[in-house]
Amino acid sequence: MPATLREVAERAGVSVRTVSNVVNDFPQVAAETRARVQRALDELGYQPNAVARTLRRGRSGLIALVLPELDVPYFAELTRAVIEQAASAGYTVVVDQTDGDPVRERELVMRGNRAAMFDGLIFSPLALGDADLRDRPSSTPVVLLGERVVQGGLDHIMIDNVAAAGLATRHLIDLGRQRIAAIGDQSDESRKTGQLRTQGYRSALHAAGLEVVPELIRPTEFFHRSDGAAAMAELLALPDPPDAVFCYNDLLALGALRTILSRGLRVPEDIALVGFDDIEDGRYSTPSLTTIRPDKTQIAKHAVQLLLSRLDGDQSPPAELPADYDLVIRESTTGPATH
Amino acid sequence: MPATLREVAERAGVSVRTVSNVVNDFPQVAAETRARVQRALDELGYQPNAVARTLRRGRSGLIALVLPELDVPYFAELTRAVIEQAASAGYTVVVDQTDGDPVRERELVMRGNRAAMFDGLIFSPLALGDADLRDRPSSTPVVLLGERVVQGGLDHIMIDNVAAAGLATRHLIDLGRQRIAAIGDQSDESRKTGQLRTQGYRSALHAAGLEVVPELIRPTEFFHRSDGAAAMAELLALPDPPDAVFCYNDLLALGALRTILSRGLRVPEDIALVGFDDIEDGRYSTPSLTTIRPDKTQIAKHAVQLLLSRLDGDQSPPAELPADYDLVIRESTTGPATH
DNA sequence: TGCGGGGCTTGCAACGTTGCAAGGAACGCT
DNA sequence: AGCGTTCCTTGCAACGTTGCAAGCCCCGCA
Questions:
Q1: Is the dihedral angle over the CA atoms B248, B251, B252, B258 positive or is it negative?
Q2: Where is A262: in which H helix or E strand?
Q3: Dihedral sign, CA of B231, B234, B236, B242?
Q4: pLDDT at residue B338 in the model
Q5: What angle do the packed helices A161-174 and A192-207 form, to 10 degrees?
Q6: Res A115 pLDDT > 70
Q7: Cβ–Cβ under 8 Å, residues A263 and A236
Q8: Among B60, B247, B281, the residue to mutate for chain A (most A Cβ within 10 A)
Q9: Which pLDDT belongs to residue B195?
Q10: pTM
C-alpha cells in the first residue's frame, strides 16, 4: 500500500500541494519546509502514482513500438535502438507484437491514447495498408516504419528499397555471376517489401544486360528461415540452378544457406548469397553473410525525434524520411578472408 | 480530441453514469435508453480513457515483462510465449529491456505499480540477486524467471540447471568424447547460471570417471556469440584441444561453431558441440545444433498463471515451479542424417 | 501606522472514470 | 387511495495528482 501525497502531507504537517511542490522541485519552497517534507517522503518511501499523474498531465511518457514479430532479429535489434533513443529523451518504450494480425494492428493504431496509455506510436505495419491508415480518427501521433505503406499521409521512415536491392544484385553481377536468383518476392499487392526489392533486382539485371528469368524469382509467404530453405530447395531442383541468390532478408538467406550446405554445395564457390538487414546471426554464420545494412540507429533516431516533435505540437505536413544503408561484403560472396 | 463520457451523455440526453452503465454492459439499463446511448457512443466514436479507468479501478490490465536483452533470441522467443499467454487471459504485456543494468532493474522492480502502470511483473534478472530482492517495499506481485535468484522469497520459475547441464554433458560422454570442454562458466558469485551449469558438467564428468580439467572450463563475461567465438579460440590454442564442448547457451555455441569451422575443423567429427536454449538459429545452422530445450511455453504459462493468481489475492507462500526441458539431438553431435 | 510587495503556502477544482446508495417513476396489490 | 415493489436513472464522491489564483505573513518604507 504505497504512500500518497496526502499521507506525506499529514506526516510533514503541510498541505498536499506543498508536498507536490517539493516532489516536482518547484523553486518557491522554503528550505526548511523542503527538508521536512523530504524527510517525510523518504520515511514513507513515497513514489508518485504514474496513473494519476498521467490523467492530470495528459502525458504518460510512454511511447509504443508496434511490431509484427519480436523474435525476428531485425525487429529485436531495431527495438533496442528505439528504446535507447527514447530513453535519452526521457521516454519509456512499450513494445507490442501483432504477429501481423490485421485486427490487432488496427486496434492498436486506430484507438488513440485513450484506449492505451501512450503518448505516441511507432508502427511497423505488416497487414495494414495505405487505405487502412488514411483517416485515423485518433489524434495520437504515429510514425510508420518500413515500406508497407506509401501514401498514408503519416510520418514515415524507410530506406530506398529499389536502390538497395539494386546494389545487392549489382554486387553479384560484378562478381561475374550469370544466373542470379531472388528469394522473397511477394505477389500480394499489399506486400510492398518484396515488390520493391524485386523491382530493384530486375533493374539491376536489365542494366547489366542480363536476362530476367521468371523461374529464378521465388515468392515466399513470410521472410523466415524456413521460407528461405524451402525456396532454395526449389531453386536447386531446377534443371539449371542459379549461381547466385539475392535473398530479401537475412533470415531467408540463412535458410537458403542451410539448404545449400546440406546438399554438399559450397558458398560462395557454387552459389553466392546476399541477404538484407544485417542481423547478428549473419555475422556468425559460416560463411558469414554479405548483406545490405540499413542504419538501424538512424531509423530509430529519426522515428523517435519525429514522434517527439509531433508531441511538441509540430504541425508541419507528414514527413517521409529516407534512411541510409550500405552493402557489407562478407564471405558468402567473396569467400573467407585469407589470413 | 476524443469524446468523454460527459460529451456522450449530453448528446444522448442522459447522465454520465448511465453512459458508463451502457459502456460497461450493466444489465439495469432500459433497452430504449441503451440504444440511444449506443448511438451517441458510435457517432462520437467514444473510446474509454484507459488512464482514468485505471486510476478509478486500480487495475490497468497491463503486466510488464522485464528482460535483460530483447535481441537475445531466447528472450525474444520467450516474450512471444508470454504475450500469448497473457493475451488469452485478457492482459496486455509491456516489454522492458534492462541490458542487465542494475539501476534499471532495481528501478523497475522496486517501484511498485505506482511508478509504472502495470498490475504485475515478470522479471528475468541479470544483475539483481537474492539480497536485492529480499525486502521489496512494493506490493506489486512479481514472478521471477531463471536461476539468478534462489532465495528471494518470491514466486520463481526455473529449470533444474544442474540436471540439464548434466544431461548435455552425459550426451557428449556417451558419444565417446574424452576431452569435454565447457564454455560459459561465471566466477562472479552473483551469476548463478554459469555456476549451476558448471556444477552439472562436473558431476557428469565425475560420474563417468572422467577427469575435470580446469583449463577446459572457460569463463565468459556474457553469453553472446562473440564470447563463444573468443572462448573457443582459446580452447583451440591449448596444446591438447577438446574433442567436444558444452556451451551454456546456443549463442555461445554458434560463436564457437564459427571459430571451429573457420579453422577448417569439422563438427562433430573433430569437435562435437552442445548448446542450451534451443533458439531457432540453432535449427538452421550447419551443422544444426544439439541443445537443451527448455519448455518456453510452459515457463510462460506458469509465469502468467502464477502472476494472475497473485493479482486475484492468492496469499499462499511463494512458489518455486520447475520447468521441463529435454535434450534435442541434432547434427552438431551426431552428424548429418543420412538420406 | 498604513501600505506595497515579495516569499511562501494553501484551497479549490479538475483530469475521466466508476462505486455507492439514493431518487424517481410506474406498476400492482389491498 | 395508499403502499410496497420493481425497474431504471442519477448525483455525489473518490481514485491521486497538479494548475490556478488567492491568501497569508512578514518585511521595509514612507
A1: positive
A2: helix A250-262
A3: negative
A4: 58
A5: 40
A6: no
A7: yes
A8: B281
A9: 92
A10: 0.91
CA distance B206 to chain A (A): 33
Query: Using CA of residue B90, residue B96, residue B97, residue B103, what is the dihedral sign?
Result: negative
In B77-102, which positions are buried (b, 16+ CB within 10 angstroms) versus exposed (e)?
bbbbbbbbbbeeeebbbbbbbbebee
d(CA B125, CA B113): 18
Residue reference for cell 572462448: B231
Retrieve residue A172's grid coordinates. Answer: 553479384
- Whether residues A94 and B95 touch (CB distance < 8 A) is answered with yes
What's the maximum distance between 2 C-alpha atoms anywhere in chain B? 88
Q: How far A116 CA sits from the closest chain B CA (Å)?
A: 6
**Distance of alpha carbon A112 from alpha carbon B51, whole angstroms:** 12
Q: Is A55 within 7 A of strand D by CB distance?
A: yes
3-state secondary structure of B169: helix
Q: How does DSSP classify residue B115? A: T
CB pairs below 8 Å between A and B: how many? 132
d(CA A251, CA A230): 12
Q: How far apart are CA A304 and CA A71, in angstroms?
A: 22
- Model confidence pLDDT, tens digit, residues B165-197: 999 999 999 999 999 999 999 987 777 889 999
Record: contact A52-B49, CB cut-off 8 A: no
Which bases along strand C come within 7 Å of a protein CB atom? 7-12, 14-20
- pLDDT of A152 > 70? The answer is no
**Alpha-carbon gap, residue B14 to B36, rounded angstroms:** 9
Residues 32-91 of A with CB under 7 A from strand C: 32-34, 52, 55-56
